[in-house]
Design brief:
heterodimer, A: 304 residues, alpha+beta, Alpha-Beta Plaits, two-stranded antiparallel sheet, 9 helices, 38% helix, B: 443 residues, mainly alpha, Formate dehydrogenase/DMSO reductase fold, 14 helices
């Protein structure tokens, strides 16, 4: 088939349409932060050297999120015998890590969603059930979720948990008390902490505070704020007296934001979607450019 | 599919009467259509066969397990955990199954775009296989979703997560299944003797194939790209920025090996449905597929070596996971490559068929390694599937085989439709071919 003007316009029109549609997204993405530039991410600084393992944060979290009472009461220390993970019914758990040199002074480290600045869970969610809010909390819209658990596969901290025993399951995790934060209040866990080990504030100011503590007490702290740069920065950050890998943190996550891991592939998608059909049509024209075959097909009544 | 000569059938849909056979209902009318459908739905041949009994039990058991799964949740039948959110329902049914369905796009590319006529006889069976694979794998995917009723969210625009690879995969998956349906439809139209519909569908073929190849490229690669977001969880020997490319490339030889394996069975089981022309060219086709597999596998292995070198991972080969990696890459990719080359040099069709099995095992290992086995290889308590997960997987495969057989036994997939046969053959087309049609085991 020769390329007629009409055909050319058809192809050009289609390609243009795709380009326009594709071009709109970056524009929208760029517009978003501009309208919210006065809002700053809030976060939490957790000073593990101050934590006494009282689990007041766990209790406050449970009542804030309406979670069921735990099997072992909040005042029992028996839970520290085993390292715990968060569960669908416990969004924050405190673990105890022994110190080899001074066994009577263990480290207590709470574990919950890190509220990454660029969260993997939100970027991989195909129906935006996980979403990063302008104030910082990474929230979960349970009405949108289809339960594919890709967020669990992608989360570098293994935080989202799934209700495997429910016929209508949800993904459960700390959502960072978005209602409280939007009202200018601190999170339930930060409010409940009697030792000031959980400090709520603007992320930028928390980093300053953490640095000040490290500079002023170099013997007390490791010179590292966990979460300042990990996976592109997290909203919830930690200070520690011990190397972080000794208190249950991974030090091999890198500083690259997780959405960037797939951005290269995703940006190739419109390219392939436009170029591939063009190349394939070209091949097809090239091969069937043979006049004899064309005539034969025509007679056949099905010009494949 | 193209025919080189004019078809005998005239567009007025008047079925030819065949001596000794009941007249075929006129499918041009509603009544005739329904009667034809009812007639065709009835099993043909013996119902109680060993295959039917075994797969029947598997399917019934599988359905019961599916009921339990939806009544009590995924935890009741699977070993999925907070540590291992994806098991074999994703790793095998979806990720591996889709790779094997890759034969459809690569073959339609060869036949309809490059016009390689040699592979024409196997296009329909491959496309049918691909289509059923996609339908059943997306079905299996629904079993794995916690809230499958929300699966329409990313389709109907209830918050598009277009930043997600899975969003892309879902859309391309859906659209490609539609493409495959259009590609299967000419056979359906011939079966129904809908001449006009067939003609329209045939005209859509090129565009559909081009769309299909494009969609396949992206979702085959996309399935791999999904795992890019787990860099700290997948063993470094398997994690690579090239996963999308590797998935795409390996889906080609996965597809080829599946075609070779599938044709081996269909030619034995449905021998009556295979026409003479197809049978005659079959050895040549298999050798060609072997050759194609070998060259693609060589490129794939080359990329694998580059990955190893770039990641400075040669030392890791001497660890337990390294040995396992070698089993996959050397044992089930390099060895099949060598065997394919030997088979081509010796023109040994049997060896191509045997090698296809090895190559298929290699692809299964690769997909399972990335999605399940090398995923969180460091965990103390590892995931392994429950018998229920395996049973349901077998049930899905059994159902697919039943439908595949049902279609093969009725529609012109392996051979041409008697009524759409080319002119000079129509004389010899009588009871032999038609009789053979019903001798095949029941479905």
């Amino acid at each position: 088939m020769p390329i007629s003007r009409r055909n050319f316009l058809k192809v050009a029109g289609a390609a243009g349409g795709v380009l326009l549609a594709g071009g709109r997204n970056p524009a929208r993405a760029a517009a978003q932060p501009a309208s919210q530039e006065d809002v700053e991410f809030y976060g939490i600084l957790i000073d593990t050297t101050k934590c006494i393992g009282c689990r007041a944060c766990e209790e406050a979290c449970n009542s804030q999120n309406g979670l069921p009472k735990p099997e072992v009461s909040f005042s029992s220390e028996s839970v520290f015998e085993k390292k715990r993970e968060t569960t669908p019914d416990a969004f924050v758990v405190v673990n105890r890590f022994p110190d080899e040199k001074t066994p009577e002074k263990p480290s207590f480290v709470r574990r919950q969603c890190m509220h990454c600045t660029q969260p993997a869970c939100a970027s991989v969610c195909l129906c935006k059930a996980m979403e990063k809010t302008a104030e910082g909390p990474t929230v979960y819209h349970k009405d949108r979720c289809m339960g594919c658990r890709y967020c669990m596969v992608s989360c570098p901290f293994d935080i989202p948990k799934f209700e495997y025993d429910s016929p209508s399951p949800f993904v459960k995790k700390c959502i960072g008390c978005p209602d409280r934060v939007a009202k200018g209040e601190q999170t339930a866990c930060a409010e409940a902490c009697p030792e000031g080990a959980t400090l709520f504030g603007k992320r930028r100011e928390l980093i300053e505070e953490a640095k000040r503590r490290i500079y002023q007490n170099p013997d007390r702290y490791q010179p590292h704020i966990y979460g300042e740069h990990e996976v592109g920065g997290t909203g919830y950050m930690y200070l520690s007296a011990f190397p972080f890998e000794k208190i249950g943190f991974r030090n091999d996550l890198g500083t690259k934001p997780y959405p960037e891991l797939t951005s290269g592939f995703l940006s190739s998608v419109p390219l392939v979607d436009i170029l591939w059909p063009a190349v394939l049509f070209g091949f097809n024209y090239l091969v069937s450019g043979n006049g004899k075959e064309d005539a034969e097909e025509h007679e056949d009544g099905h010009g494949a | 599919m193209q025919r080189s000569t004019r078809t005998v059938m005239e567009p007025n849909v008047r079925p030819l009467s065949i001596a000794g056979k009941a007249p075929v209902p006129d499918t041009g009318t509603w009544k005739g259509f329904l009667r034809f459908l009812l007639q065709e739905l009835r099993p043909k041949g013996k119902v109680v066969t060993r295959f039917n009994v075994i797969t029947g039990i598997i399917i019934l058991g599988g359905l019961a397990l599916i009921v339990v799964r939806f009544a009590k949740g995924l935890g009741a039948v699977t070993n999925l955990s907070q540590e291992y959110p994806w098991g074999i329902w994703i790793g095998f049914d979806v990720v591996t199954g889709v790779a094997f369905a890759g034969g459809a796009y690569i073959l339609t590319f060869a036949v309809h775009i490059l016009k390689v006529k040699k592979y024409e006889p196997i296009v329909r069976a491959t496309v049918l296989n691909g289509f059923l694979a996609y339908v059943f794998y997306s079905g299996a995917l629904l079993l794995d979703l916690g809230r499958p009723w929300n699966v329409i969210n990313p389709i109907i625009g209830n918050a598009y997560g277009y930043g997600s690879v899975l969003f892309l995969v879902a859309w391309h998956f859906l659209l490609y299944t539609a493409c495959l349906f259009v590609e299967v439809c000419p056979a359906v139209a011939e079966w129904l003797r809908w001449v006009k519909a067939r003609r329209i569908l045939q005209k859509m073929t090129t565009a559909t194939v081009i769309l299909g190849v494009t969609l396949s490229t992206l979702h085959q690669a996309g399935l791999g790209a999904m795992f890019l977001t787990a860099p700290a969880k997948i063993h470094p020997l398997w994690y690579s920025g090239n996963i999308p490319v590797l998935f795409f490339i390996s889906s080609m030889f996965a597809g080829f090996s599946m075609i070779i394996i599938e044709s081996r069975f269909t030619h034995r089981i449905f021998s009556g449905r295979v026409d003479a022309a197809h049978r005659a060219s079959h050895d040549k086709i298999l050798l060609g597929l072997g050759k194609g597999s070998a060259s693609i596998m060589a490129a794939y292995l080359f990329l694998k070596v580059i990955d190893l070198t770039h990641g400075h991972q040669w030392g890791m080969l001497l660890t337990p996971m390294g040995y396992w990696y070698l089993v996959e890459v050397a044992g089930f990719t390099l060895v099949p490559l060598v065997l394919y080359i030997v088979a081509i040099r010796e023109q040994n069709v049997r060896l191509v068929q045997t090698t296809a099995f090895l190559a298929a095992v290699g692809v299964i290992l690769n997909r399972l390694n990335i999605s399940v086995i090398a995923f969180k290889w460091y965990e103390a308590v590892r995931y392994y599937p429950t018998w229920q997960e395996i049973w349901v997987t077998l049930a899905v495969i059994s159902m697919e085989l039943w439908i595949f057989r049902w279609v093969i036994n009725r529609m012109p997939i392996l051979g041409e439709h008697p009524d759409f046969r080319t002119g000079e053959e129509i004389v010899s087309n009588g009871s032999p071919a038609e009789g053979a049609r019903w001798t095949v085991s029941a479905s």
